[in-house]
Structure formats: C-alpha cells, structure tokens
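Field log, afternoon session.

UNIT: design team B
ACTIVITY: writing a sequence onto a fixed backbone
BACKBONE:
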C-alpha cells in the first residue's frame, strides 16, 4: 500500500496533498476489507525526543495540526472508511506512557493541545481513541471531563470513543468509553473490563447509546455501502492477499516525499543539474545505503529504520530504493559519475571527496513507539562533524542529506554548503532524493517543528509519573522566539526566490464573515518555477498574556518564473480569541493586533497592525 510517513506528509505544508494521501489510504484500506483506520495521530510535538512524533501530523502548532487533521479525515472517510483521531489527549511522550500524569491547566489544554481534535470532530471523524496517560490525575479513557465534557458537551461529538490497546482500567461506560480494545485484561490477569458479565451490570440505556454511536458512524460514513467483503471471516483473504496499491498511489507517494523535503541551507551548490558534463558525485556515509533490514522489522514490532517509524503505525515496504541507488540511476541519465564510501571513515571519505565535483554526506536516525529517543543526534553525527571540520576550506562543496523522524541537532551546519532534510519518507525515499537534489522537483517542504540550536532549549520527557506542563502556552517555536535556533518553524528554502507585497493590508472593513481580512501579492522573482508556503502569524494585544507570533493561516502556491498571484487571508473571531477559564469558553480579545506575513516564523516579509 501507499507508504509515506505521517510527519513527511505534514512537512509538505500542502492541505491538498494531505487530502490526497488520506483519500489513497482510505481506498487501500477499503480494498482490503477494512472499515476503520487508526489515524490521524494529532498529538502536538511537545517533547522533541518523542518516540511517536514521526507519526503525528500536527508538528508543534495547534492551527497547523487542525488544518492537516481536517484534510486527513475528509480524505479517508470519502472512501467509506472510518477515521480514528488519536491519542486523546496529551500523549506527548512515550516514557512511562501508561502511568505518566499530564498536569495541564484548562487554558493551555484548550488553546494548545485540543484544537486538532476539535478540527477532526468538525470534519466528521467517526471515532476518537483515548490515550494511555492520565490527565490531571485521571486515566484518559476514564476521564469524564474530557470524554463527556469536552468531546460531547462542548464539541457535540456524535461518534464513539475507543480505548488504545490495554488502556482501559475500569468499566468506564458512564465516563464516556464506548469500546474497550484488546489487552486490558493484563491489568487483572483474568477478565476483560468490558466482559459480558461486567456490561450486564451497566444501565441498558447506556449500553444502547454506546452501540448506537458506533452504528451511526458506520451508516454515516458508508461502511455498509457495497462492501468488498463480509465481516465474520469473509474479509480475511482480502486483508492478506488483496493488492490495494496501484501506479497512481506509488506516484503519489513519490510526489509527497519530494514535496516534503526541506532545503534548510544552500550556498548555490544545489541543484546538481548545473554540474559540468561528466562530473563526479561522491556519496559518503552509511546512511546513503542503509539496509532496509526486513527480517528484523518483521520480527520486532517496534523497530524502525531510516525509511519508516517503528511501532503499530509502521508500514513495511522492502522495495524502498536507497539514496545511493536512486542518485546513481539519475546521475547516469544525466551523464554524471557516482562514487561512494559507506565506511563512515573520515580519512577515506575525505580522500574520495578529492575525486569529485560535489559530495553528498548522509545522516539519519530512527524512532519508534514505546520509547522516546535518547538524544536529538543523527546516528552519524560524530562522523559528519569530523568530516566537515577536517574538509579543507574552499575545497569540494558538500551537501548533507538527512533522513529524520523529528527535530535533530545540526551542530556542524556552518561547515556544510547545503543541507536538505527529509522526514522519514517511506517507499519512494531514494527516488524523492534524486528528484530534489538534481532539481527535477524544486524543494518546497517546510519545517513543522523547530530544529533547535541546543537540546537544552527543548522540553525533555518527564521521568517522574507526575508531569506538570510548566511551560504553559510556550510550546515549540512559541517558547523560542527570543532564542537562537538552528532552523525555525516554517523554514524551507527554494531553488528560486519569492517577493511579497501588500495588496490590502489587514483591515476590519469588508471582511464578510471574518473579523479581519487582508490580501497579499506573491511573485516568483527567481529563475525557476517553484512553490512557496505563504504564512501568516499574529501577536495578541500586549495584555493578553500570549506568546508572540502564532501561526494563524498558510497557503502553498505554485508559481512559474515571473508569475504573481494574490493570497487572501482572513481571521475569524475564534482566531482572535483566547480561552476564558471563568466562562469556560472562547472569548474574543480586543485591542491592537500585529499581523506578520512571510516565508517562515522568522522570515517575515510584511508587517502591519489592526485594531479589533
């Protein structure tokens, strides 16, 4: 089936590609007789080391996550397959995930962590999966204030709630848990909490409601409409033998992977199609030709590699092309020669570099469910650092190609001529690298997370079971606006350039349903066709007590050389609100708002203010 990793799709910053991916996922699940898909994962990347960050489509921003969650749900459910948004809520680390108590105040919960779930509910998601952790002292799957209070009373959620596997610790029907998934009997070694005997003591009206919620979604989404097989054993052959993929989906996986790549730095060495005829390209480092390790993956459920995240969300495709294979094939087509050294030996790699017109050194690391990463370094960090520091100045330029599951440290970045990052990209990884490096695709991915200058600037996993979210509203890039970072949230370069101009600065006049509206002209002023992600950030009035520069809108634009287009952005009353802990509701905040439009959270091209 189609295999492009969650974080990779998100880093395209392209809502239409997320919709296309969700649609393809739904179609492939339907073809195999499945009627439920356990996604999207929308937990915010609070902890940079988070083992499942690569699965989550939210990055470190609630608005960004809301856009992506909406498109995923719409895509999957358009194929008559029910989506399950997870893990509700605050499953922000894998360390002690079954026992950690996430302690968060009401305002932070609603402003930072809940919006992507709410967006999924508004999009009609069929099911919500509750998480392993505790929320303010109560297990998520038995937490009535979130399951009944937030989901059903505040958001009018019409679907059902299922537990994560082994996440049920009681008969929690009245607390809002409709379905207990397998594994919870490990707690008492004997009886499932939702056994017939236990459920017989629950109010029959409650049981009817639980069943109704599930059946309603099956009918609403269209599960019963011409299914490919019948449940009760009739779908087994489809599940294991139906070939659900097709050439169109493989092409989509390649498009997504290439569109997801972030050009973090480039002094002009890229793209490689400008090399002289017959030039030699040196591929350096073990990560350029990393083994897929199929046998180990099939024997260990939570093992990841440089192409897929480990754990229950993993999709294995052993035919994934490596960087070396794909770069070699494309280089030969262009008349270039490729040499390589996979030894991670600094001296032999430097010697090889002397024979080349350009070097590509590869670095990567893995991530998996159940374990947080031990650090933010790629596995080859020491080798890359030594190789770059010992490379003579003004010698052969070097591109660093990274395959990562989330934020990484790039302490060697000043010594690299170019850096490209690709979050774990699935089955078309190598081909996507060839597309980007040779300029067949102009990079347009953007970072949905910050690459910090130091790990000391990030939130670490709580080692104690008591885990107060002491940073409050200051999560991810919002906490780092006054700090130096390696590469900021929203960052990503192109092989062309774009200019920005106001058409209509922010105003409250003539905005139809929006409270504030504006229009921007974006022009491709460079020498190649390309795509730009135009981003709009806001700063609240000074007395609001909010972090500065919060993302509120973005749009991906594809422009040919010299082409201009206009982008209209609107801010609703909700966009201009904060959570009132007295009324327990959103409250529009009046005063002078500052509006920023640009190419990243720190590459601001236009600034204005408006009184609301």
């Amino acid at each position: 089936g189609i295999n492009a990793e969650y974080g990779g799709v998100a880093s395209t910053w392209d809502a239409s590609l997320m919709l296309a991916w969700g649609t393809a996922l739904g179609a492939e699940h339907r073809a195999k007789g499945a009627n439920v898909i356990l996604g999207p994962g929308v937990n915010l990347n609070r902890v940079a080391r988070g083992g499942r960050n690569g699965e989550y489509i939210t990055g470190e921003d609630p608005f960004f996550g809301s856009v992506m969650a909406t498109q995923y749900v719409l895509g999957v459910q358009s194929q008559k397959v029910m989506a399950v948004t997870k893990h509700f809520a605050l499953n922000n680390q894998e360390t002690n995930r079954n026992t950690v108590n996430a302690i968060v105040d009401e305002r932070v919960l609603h402003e930072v962590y809940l919006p992507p779930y709410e967006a999924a509910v508004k999009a009609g998601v069929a099911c919500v999966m509750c998480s392993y952790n505790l929320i303010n002292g109560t297990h998520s799957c038995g937490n009535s204030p979130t399951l009944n209070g937030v989901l059903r009373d505040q958001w009018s959620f019409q679907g059902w709630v299922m537990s994560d596997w082994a996440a049920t610790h009681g008969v929690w029907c009245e607390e809002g848990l409709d379905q207990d998934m397998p594994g919870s009997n490990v707690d008492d070694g004997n009886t499932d909490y939702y056994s017939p005997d236990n459920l017989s003591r629950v109010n029959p009206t409650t049981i009817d409601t639980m069943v109704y919620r599930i059946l309603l979604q099956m009918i609403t989404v269209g599960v019963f409409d011409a299914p490919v097989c019948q449940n009760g054993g009739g779908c087994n052959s489809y599940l294991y033998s139906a070939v659900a993929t097709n050439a169109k989906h493989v092409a989509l996986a390649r498009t997504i992977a290439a569109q997801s790549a972030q050009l973090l730095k480039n002094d002009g060495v890229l793209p490689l199609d400008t090399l002289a005829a017959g030039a030699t390209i040196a591929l350096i480092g073990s990560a350029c030709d990393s083994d897929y390790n199929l046998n180990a993956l099939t024997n260990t459920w939570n093992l990841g590699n440089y192409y897929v995240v480990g754990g229950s969300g993993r999709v294995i495709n052993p035919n994934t092309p490596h960087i070396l294979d794909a770069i070699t094939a494309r280089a030969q087509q262009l008349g270039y020669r490729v040499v390589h050294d996979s030894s991670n030996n600094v001296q032999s790699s430097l010697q090889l570099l002397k024979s080349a017109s350009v070097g590509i050194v590869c670095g990567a690391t893995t991530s998996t469910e159940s374990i947080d990463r031990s650090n933010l370094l790629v596995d080859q960090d020491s080798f890359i650092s030594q190789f770059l520091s010992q490379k003579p100045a003004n010698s052969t330029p070097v591109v660093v190609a990274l395959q990562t599951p989330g934020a990484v440290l790039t302490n060697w970045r000043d010594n690299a001529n170019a850096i490209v990052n690709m979050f774990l990209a699935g089955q078309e990884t190598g081909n996507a690298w060839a597309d980007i490096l040779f300029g067949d695709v102009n990079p347009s991915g953007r970072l949905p997370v910050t690459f910090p200058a130091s790990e000391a600037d990030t939130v670490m996993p709580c080692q104690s079971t008591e885990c107060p979210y002491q940073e409050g509203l200051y999560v991810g890039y919002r906490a780092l606006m006054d700090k130096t970072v390696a590469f900021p949230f929203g960052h990503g370069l192109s092989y062309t350039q774009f200019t920005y101009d106001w058409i209509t600065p922010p105003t409250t006049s003539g905005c139809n349903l929006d409270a504030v509206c504006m229009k921007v002209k974006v022009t491709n002023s460079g020498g190649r066709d390309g795509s730009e992600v135009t981003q709009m950030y806001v700063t609240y009035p000074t007395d609001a007590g909010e972090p500065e520069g919060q993302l509120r809108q973005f749009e991906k634009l594809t422009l040919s050389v010299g082409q201009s287009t206009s982008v209209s952005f609107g801010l609703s009353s909700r966009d201009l609100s904060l959570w009132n802990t007295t009324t327990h509701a959103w409250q529009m905040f009046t005063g002078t708002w500052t509006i920023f439009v640009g190419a990243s959270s720190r590459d601001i091209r236009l600034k204005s203010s408006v009184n609301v």
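LOG NOTE: The chain has a mean pLDDT of 96.
NEXT ACTIVITY: expression trials, pending approval
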